[in-house]
Amino acid sequence: MNKLQFEAKLSSLQSLSTLPAVMAEVLRICEDHDAPMSELTDVIRHDPALSTKVLKVVNSPYYGKSQQVASIQSAVMTLGAAQVKALALSLSLYAVTNQLGDKVELKDFWRHSLNVACVSELIAKRVAPQLAEEAFIVGCIHDIGMLILDKFYPNEYSKIVQAAAGGSDLVKVEREHFDCDHAEAGELLLRIWNFPERYCEAVSRHHEIVELQDKSQPDSLATIVNLADKLA
């Protein structure tokens, strides 16, 4: 299957061909820096599942809050709007991709993704603070292409994941079996969903070693996530 056939098959899946309304709205708010936070809290409140997930993460040991955060408004005040936007977008994406996994263990997949997101954010805060929110988001979605490959080729991909667990280079093995790797598959899905170009580029290049002197935003995000992926 070549890249064009792969993209056509991806576009034909009704469950993936359009971005869910809640997720699209959260993404719009993330991109609109003038949007009032009341818009974000209203969107999250009107999705009970998303609201519950956000509060669960906010109250997790990672954030180390001494008092329980009991409302979305409190979460925004405690963590800041940027962090809550990133969390909401990532968790709404999690809900969408739950239907994709076949052989890939989703719990482990998302644990790794969240670890990479958190490490990406920490790195960005040190080297490019203006990218911290976006580094968290890209960290969460960097491996989403694995779920696409798993959806299309469940039996083959299970063997590829096992080979990678045994020490083989995952990207190399993917390219040997298919016409694209999981980074390219993830990029195609994000483009279908009309994600911002810088997210698409960063996901597509997160396994590349990008020259540090290249200061373009997608390359900076890809470099940050590349390092976070290795550390996490």
Give the N-terminus to C-terminus distance in angstroms: 32 Å
Largest sheet, described in full? none
Order of helices and strands: HHHHHHHHHHHHHHH
Kindly estimate the percentage of residues that lie in beta strands according to DSSP: under 5%
Proportion in helices: over 70%
Rg, alpha carbons:
17 Å
Principal-axes shape call: globular
Number of strands: 0
**Average residue-wise pLDDT:** 81
Total of helices: 15
Oligomer: single chain
Report low-confidence residues grouped into runs of 5 or more.
none
Question: Structural class of the secondary elements?
Answer: mainly alpha
Give a description of the structure.
- The chain contains 15 helices and no strands.
- Helix 1 (3-12) packs across helix 13, helix 9 (132-141) crosses helix 15 and helix 14 (197-204) packs across helix 15.
- It is an all-alpha fold and 232 residues long.
Please render the helix and strand layout as text.
Blueprint: H1 3-12, H2 14-17, H3 21-31, H4 37-45, H5 48-58, H6 72-79, H7 81-97, H8 106-127, H9 132-141, H10 144-152, H11 154-165, H12 170-177, H13 182-192, H14 197-204, H15 217-231
Helix pairs in contact: 1-13, 3-4, 3-7, 5-7, 6-7, 7-9, 8-9, 8-15, 9-15, 10-11, 10-13, 11-12, 13-14, 14-15
What is shown here, in short?
71% of the residues lie in helices and 0% in strands.
Give the tags.
mainly alpha; 0% strand; 15 helices; globular; 232 residues
